[in-house]
């Protein structure tokens, strides 16, 4: 079996659902259920003996030790993190706690467990760290996309905390020999995405007739990848990646934010027309994010060359599936827009 951390969040829950759709290898899912964690994402696994959900924090060493000793996983796939840049600007402490200290605790627990293994089990064990392209900083318009050899230049509290965690993972391999893998992925989108991030926020705001807040001039570029392609990339690296290596995962799909928002509006105009007029009428430029990175783009040739991985979805196919998913899952959307969600929207947007 494998131990997944953060498997009730956006990417982690997609990963667990895809994993169990494709194999019968059980998953222990350790998640603290912060505002971003949602048991409803995993509702289809209720009663499925292959999925064991554990409500707990990666920073609780005794709990992690006990889970490892009891279940003896062959791998840890580590998604658990604070993940939203704007929240890291308003409150960086939680990012240091989970992303840096939590990863440290998990690495120490993994090292302790790995040292109890021997022979083939010890050789086969993997600690797979899921990270972001944001650790590389911001590209100029003519720069080549991020390769695995780029220097780390994190600019936000979020990306600095993820960069720190990447460094810890690297060091635990070089110093202690822990068999690690790291993947650095570009911006994901797809089902189960919490509506604080750009694409789901635009969908839910548009459907509610609310303004679509575009930061600054809207010309910031991200390299968007459908979440299930990220999950297949992680599976490929876990299965065949070289120990101690990092692999960049991306969609070969650079787009400016304003074009993303216009694409979402056009799809909604087609799929759920608003009698009040085109959704693009709701686009509202607002004060920029402090320290806003201008451009991210991933050079995903290494994972393709070594492991034969390519994204299956184009942006056109992935964004259509995503918008349709939000239209079909109004109850999920209503459920996540709790009081805490409304508080965050007030905190982030009222003064912009
Ligand atoms: P998310 O915020 O949707 O989910 C994070 C999950 O981790 C939640 O279920 C939360 O409850 C859990 N969690 C948080 N702190 C925890 C703790 N201390 N102990 C146990 N569980 C805890 O995040 P996501 O978008 O699914 O991202 C998952 C991972 O992928 C993160 O490590 C993130 O840095 C990375 N990543 C995300 C993207 C993206 O576009 N979303 C892109 C590249 C990499
Ligand atoms: P986000 O989804 O928060 O991901 P990240 O900051 O990790 O790339 O934001 C994606 C882009 O969209 C980023 O350039 C910031 C921008 N953005 C807006 O313009 N308006 C918004 O309301 C949000 C949440 C993001």
UniProtKB/TrEMBL annotation:
Domain NAD(P)-binding: 3-322
Catalytic reaction list: dTDP-alpha-D-glucose = dTDP-4-dehydro-6-deoxy-alpha-D-glucose + H2O
Cofactor section: NAD(+)
Keyword Disulfide bond listed: no
Enzyme class, first EC level, given as a word: lyase
CDD domains: dTDP_GD_SDR_e
Pfam family, one: GDP_Man_Dehyd
GO BP, one annotated term: nucleotide-sugar metabolic process
EC number: 4.2.1.46
An example molecular function term from Gene Ontology annotations: dTDP-glucose 4,6-dehydratase activity
Family assignment from sequence similarity: Belongs to the NAD(P)-dependent epimerase/dehydratase family. dTDP-glucose dehydratase subfamily.
NCBIfam families the UniProt entry points to: dTDP_gluc_dehyt (TIGR01181)
PANTHER family per UniProt: DTDP-D-GLUCOSE 4,6-DEHYDRATASE-RELATED
Protein name: dTDP-glucose 4,6-dehydratase
Species: Ideonella aquatica
Organism classification: Bacteria, Pseudomonadati, Pseudomonadota, Betaproteobacteria, Burkholderiales
Gene that specifies this protein: rfbB
């Amino acid at each position: 079996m494998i131990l997944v951390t953060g498997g009730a969040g956006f990417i982690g829950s997609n990963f667990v659902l895809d994993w169990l759709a494709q194999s019968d290898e059980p998953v222990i899912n350790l998640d603290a259920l912060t505002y971003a964690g949602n048991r409803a994402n995993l509702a289809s696994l209720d009663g499925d003996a292959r999925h064991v959900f554990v409500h707990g924090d990666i920073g609780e060493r005794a709990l992690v030790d006990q889970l490892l000793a009891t279940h003896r996983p062959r791998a840890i796939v580590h998604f658990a993190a604070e993940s939203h840049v704007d929240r890291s600007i308003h409150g960086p402490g939680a990012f240091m706690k989970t992303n840096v200290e939590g990863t440290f605790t998990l690495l120490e627990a993994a090292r302790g467990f790995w040292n109890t293994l021997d022979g083939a089990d010890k050789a086969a064990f993997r600690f797979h760290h899921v990270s972001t392209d944001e650790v590389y900083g911001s590209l100029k318009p003519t720069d080549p996309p991020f390769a695995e050899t780029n220097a780390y230049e994190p600019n936000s509290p979020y990306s600095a905390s993820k960069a720190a965690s990447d460094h810890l993972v690297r060091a635990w391999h070089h110093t202690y020999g822990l068999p690690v893998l790291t993947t650095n992925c570009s911006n994901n989108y797809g089902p189960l995405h919490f509506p604080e991030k750009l694409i789901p926020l635009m969908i839910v705001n548009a459907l509610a007739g609310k303004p679509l807040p575009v930061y600054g001039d809207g010309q910031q570029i991200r390299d968007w990848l459908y979440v299930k392609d990220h999950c297949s990339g992680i599976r490929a690296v876990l299965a065949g990646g070289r120990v101690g290596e990092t692999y960049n995962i991306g969609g070969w799909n650079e787009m400016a934010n304003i074009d993303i928002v216009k694409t979402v509006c056009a799809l909604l105009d087609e799929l759920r027309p608003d009698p009040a007029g085109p959704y693009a009428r709701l686009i509202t430029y607002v004060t920029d994010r402090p320290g806003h990175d201008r451009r991210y783009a991933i050079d995903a040739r290494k994972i393709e060359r070594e492991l034969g991985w390519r994204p299956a979805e184009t942006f056109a196919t992935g964004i259509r599936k995503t918008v349709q998913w939000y239209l079909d899952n109004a109850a999920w959307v209503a459920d996540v827009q709790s009081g805490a969600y409304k508080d965050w929207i007030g905190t982030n947007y009222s003064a912009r």
